[in-house]
Design goal:
Radius of gyration: 21 Å
CATH class of the largest domain: Mainly Alpha
Order of helices and strands: HHHHHHHHHHH
Distance between the termini: 52 Å
CATH topology of the largest domain: Tetracycline Repressor, domain 2
CATH superfamily of the largest domain: Tetracycline Repressor, domain 2
Helix content: 55-70%
Shape: globular
Structural class: mainly alpha
Amino acid sequence: MSKVDNRSAASVPSRRERLRAETIREIEAIALRQLADDGPGAISLRGIAREMGMTARAIYSYFPTRDDLITALISGIGGSLAEALQTAVDAVPGNDPGGRLVAWGGALREWALAHPESFRLFYGQPIPGYHPPEEGPVDRTARRVCRELTRLVAAAQRDDRPPGNTENSWSDLQPDYVAKIREDLPDVSPAAAALALRVWGRMHGLVALEIDGHIHPVARNPAALHHAEMLDLVGSLGLAAARPGTAT
């Protein structure tokens, strides 16, 4: 067998690795169902073990603690969201900052509707007793989403269009947040960072209301409502979406 063949064989997961990955997926799926049925405090390794017919000792070989399970869940969720957002943005030309922001907001809604439990876990209320590791995977995935939205807003500002409130300074923001933004995006101004937070609030607000069941009783077409909000948002920034797309 050639060296290339050896490398190919080594890259194929073994049966044991495939079974382990499948078990991890099942554990995470049950945890999300526990979350949906009884809230964030209901996630229980022992409860999952009972449902899967496993011993507590066996399930701890996959996730030693409940915090480890929750960290893995949130990290995977954040990665899935970030990929969906990036794919949507990449489909819009870089010279259309308004269209890219609309695409980002639309992708957020579509992903949330497809994964409501994941959305709630990532952006919902804190899980009782859960302590994410500092600078761990949860922080990295959240920073990735935040970084890309801030980058989009900053790009819109660099396009010589009205940036909104330009009176912001770094002192207006929390020091820990400032440190992360300045490390990830050293060329971003405090005005862009603050504006990104305002943009995020508008993008996230209707989505959260819809996921929690507050939009359907009052709006016949939640997709059109959200899309109109995204167009109004970019318009308030002095932008226009060259490729506004359609609400579905």
